[in-house]
């Protein structure tokens, strides 16, 4: 049954993704906001499929902490789910992606057109300067910069591995940082193609005020995200 | 940003906690390195204030004169490392008659902030219990949990979202080193 639902969802998802992705391409000529809107629509359609085909629901906690203006959003990264959810829940997000993504047809074009921040991870110092410059542009436009401070997806329960790259943005841009925890890894497949029914809980936590020094910021960020993640994972396993 | 004022819980942060309360100076045992950590804050020109629930008074186990003697002992132990407390606030209320000063209420913290003309953003509270973090959250100041005293248990029981963000350190020494770091 689980496998059947997952196959059904996958068929649905590839189908709608193909249609929505290709049909929108001419609108790349329109302003950026149109593409942002289209991606949000695709996110809603994807989450609709998860809810109605797989039986995977979403609970959002701490909505009052979702920033309406410029801010950093630092999230735990377990699966692709939170990329979709964070794009849809924030008013005008700029997600930080690795540059290689631009080589993926469609996906990369969308990322560029929607104004995501693409970073080259091979050249450190220049990449950091570029990222901060792009970050400042986004903050000036009241956008939310979404960062996965561990750099990559990590399995549930893995030893935390926070990189201090996010401090470059926090320290230079002087904006609050909203930590985000969730338990998507319990439901969304890391490998393979079996989605599990249930309810992903995503929690926006009270912001870390600007101005902390590097070590205190990194410690606060990690402790806060990990404490909340552990609690949500335990809640999901009950 | 270096804090202007550090608010310190006492039992479990500066000295070893006791289930049956610290009722006389002889029962006051400093935690390793805590006095030295306060010394570093003093040397850095940061004000320190103790904010401590002392329900032992409200329960009739000891009186204010005895608490003064305990605090003299605490000041002496700390002074050996150059540490100084700029103020000590205590709340004598027992839990069954708790007023606005007993943590988790923020009364004592607010008094300390107004005494030193510090805004919540200029303060950090360091404590070992959930109610310390709750009081700091209500007062609007940054909060640090140390794993001494009740701290490890507090962390293991899970921190509710409203008290986050919180940073956690093994003891006061590690917390102060980070506060004073680059």
Write the layout of secondary structure elements.
The complex is a heterodimer of chains A (238) and B (182).
Chain A lengths: L1 H23 L7 H23 L1 E6 L9 E5 L5 H9 L3 E6 L8 H7 L3 E3 L4 H17 L3 E4 L17 H9 L3 E6 L15 E7 L9 H24 L1
Parallel strand pairs in A: 1-7, 2-5, 2-6, 3-4, 3-5
Antiparallel strand pairs in A: 6-7
Helix pairs in contact in A: 1-2, 2-3, 5-6
Chain B lengths: L4 E4 L25 H10 L3 E7 L1 H4 L5 H16 L7 E5 L15 H9 L7 E5 L2 H10 L2 E5 L4 H6 L10 E3 L2 H9 L2
Helix pairs in contact in B: 1-7
Please provide a written account of the structure:
The complex is a heterodimer of chains A (238) and B (182). Chain A contains seven helices and seven strands. Chain A is 47% helix and 16% strand. By secondary structure, chain A is α/β, with parallel strands linked by helices. Chain A starts with a helix and ends with a helix. Chain A has a seven-stranded mixed beta sheet with strand order 1-7-6-2-5-3-4, with helices on both faces. The longest helix of chain A has 24 residues, at 214-237. Chain B has 182 residues and is an alpha/beta fold. Chain B has one domain: HAD superfamily/HAD-like (Rossmann fold). Chain B has a six-stranded parallel beta sheet, with helices on both faces. In chain B, helix 1 (34-43) packs parallel to helix 7. The model of chain B has no long low-confidence stretch (mean pLDDT 96). The A-B interface holds A 61-62, 179, 203, 205-209, 211-216, 219-221, 223-224, 227-228, 230-231, 234 and B 1-2, 121, 142, 155, 158-159, 161-162, 164-169, 178-179, 181-182.
